[in-house]
What we know:
- This protein is mainly beta.
- It has one domain (11-196).
- Helices cover 12% and strands 34% of the residues.
- It has three helices and 14 strands.
- It has helices spanning 11-17, 78-83, 144-153, and strands at residues 20-25, 45-47, 50-53, 60-66, 71-76, 86-91, 95-98, 101-102, 115-121, 126-131, 156-161, 170-172, 175-176, 192-196.
- The protein has a five-stranded antiparallel sheet with strand order 3-2-6-4-5.
- β12 and β13 form a beta hairpin.
- The longest helix is centred in the last third of the chain and has 10 residues, at 144-153.
- The radius of gyration is 16 Å and the shape is globular.
Amino acid sequence: xxxxxxxxxxxxxxxxxxxxxxxxxxxxxxxxxxxxxxxxxxxxxxxxxxxxxxxxxxxxxxxxxxxxxxxxxxxxxxxxxxxxxxxxxxxxxxxxxxxxxxxxxxxxxxxxxxxxxxxxxxxxxxxxxxxxxxxxxxxxxxxxxxxxxxxxxxxxxxxxxxxxxxxxxxxxxxxxxxxxxxxxxxxxxxxxxxxxx
Length: 197
């Protein structure tokens, strides 16, 4: 979770602060009238085994990572998440593929939007997928079923949808590598999944 003077951080700032190679935006945040400042969490966040937002006894749909970098998807309360080895997690979704089983059945599921998603193959290879959208003539976005098809083509064993829309940002090797759906470019975000060196 990043928070500077009442706002979140741009993905590029988060990546640079942690001397990482790249990253993607992760969980959602309060976004009144589409101008949220990226610092007000509305979904559960666990960071470094600490609950930053949420209720310890409530079960949430978590997208988490353990100390070995294994992507873990499931419904957990805080203690169950720790027992499962989760060190860092965000609440979001839906899950796209769980333990090799496709979760999305409907072709219109979720509508057509810019998307951000995370997945992992059985061998541990991470897969980040960013789909630009809301830009007629360039890209309108995609449905959750097509997102699932992309993960399937790349051999994902687990995959989940993250906060998309105008938050969908992928940063790699010193620059934003997707075309965000807002003219202002990068948004201020509460958190991200990053690739450490």
